[in-house]
Amino acid sequence: MRSPHLPLQGGGRRREAAAGGGDTARCPAFALTPPHPARCARDPPPPGEGAAEAGFTLVEIIVALSILALALSVLLGVISNGVVQTGRAEAAAEAASLAQSLLAEVGTSTPLASGQWGGQFDNGLRWRLRMEPYVGTSDPQQLPASAYRVSAEVFWHDAGEQKSVVLTTLRLGPKGGTQ
Question: How far apart are CA 167 and CA 152, in angstroms?
Answer without folding.
Answer: 5
